[in-house]
Amino acid sequence: MKPSTQSQEEQAQPLDLELFYAEEVSEATVLYDARRANELDGATWTRYSISIWSDIRKTAEEVALKHPAMFPAALPARLIECYTRRGMTVLDPFLGVGSTLIAAKQLGRHGIGIELNPEYARIAETRLETLTLEQEWSESGEKVDCRVYVGDANELDQFVEPESIDLVVTSPPYWDILLEKRTADYKPIRHYGGEEKDLGKIRDYNQFLKAIQSIFRKVYTVLKPGAYCCVVVMDIRKKNRFYPYHSDLAMHLQEVGFIYDDLIIWDRRHEYNNLRPLGYPSVFRINKVHEFILILQRP
């Protein structure tokens, strides 16, 4: 694997307008390209900058996988396009069935994924193998290297070198909600797996947050200075108690040292086609049909 060696701080230096408007391919133009945050054109940059994303959909292949808590590859793909360039390295410490690495490989980025459940890790590897040969090469001709490791995210430092990652895109467990029936549409419980180290088995909310924080301390160390960490989460309700998971997690990650840089709302209402009047008629409750994407940065 050949991750990018240039820090994001270097990339953020002010651009020389003469380089910006250079029309010929030259050393000056290459210098300009190396300083870019990403490879988006202006129109796409503007479209992606809207704070609510409502156009992300699962493919038929992703729906068929029936993973209890996966996001579509289109979601990490957009984040990867926003925060990296080709040839950079993306990490997902809670890989699941591989959506982040699928997106990374398709976009010419290297990828590392860690997954606790061996069955899901195998599915991720199989999905990566089915991508066409053309998708295995970055524009520079360098072969894209995407690796799946079966292991515990708490042991991240056994798989990833310090300050080697350009972007993290991940979705940690939503506490123990996979052990509960969904209140919005009453779909049945779908357990993630039987592993003893599954964080979703921690019943105490504060202990769960501390366990997640411990993992992100290691995520922090493998990120390059200036690199971003995108965390997909959803708030939680258990009967009469509401848990603002996204803000609680953001607070814990700031304690690690992350800068809370931005927040995106992922609108998923199109997936909920069997909504019910929660609490009717005695207590008015909100049907949560969105998730949050925390945008954090290592200074």
CATH class: Alpha Beta
Order of helices and strands: HHHHEHHEHEHEEHEEEHEE
Shape verdict: globular
Got a strand count?
A: 10
- DSSP helix count? 10
CATH architecture heading? 3-Layer(aba) Sandwich
Q: Round the mean pLDDT to the nearest integer and report it.
A: 84
Short note summarizing the structure:
The protein is an alpha/beta fold and 299 residues long.
Textual characterization of the structure:
This protein has a single domain, classed as Rossmann fold (3-Layer(aba) Sandwich), CATH 3.40.50.150. Helix 7 links the parallel strand 2 and strand 3 (110-115). The protein is globular, with a radius of gyration of 20 Å. It contains 10 helices and 10 strands. The chain is of the alpha/beta class and 299 residues long.
List keywords for this structure.
299 residues, alpha/beta, Rossmann fold, eight-stranded mixed β-sheet, two-stranded antiparallel sheet
Topology record:
Elements: H1 8-11, H2 17-20, H3 27-34, H4 42-48, E1 52-53, H5 60-65, H6 74-83, E2 89-92, H7 99-106, E3 110-115, H8 118-129, E4 146-150, E5 165-170, H9 205-222, E6 223-233, E7 236-238, E8 241-243, H10 245-256, E9 259-267, E10 290-297
Parallel strand pairs: 1-9, 2-3, 2-5, 3-4, 5-6
Antiparallel strand pairs: 6-10, 7-8, 9-10
Helix pairs in contact: 6-7, 9-10
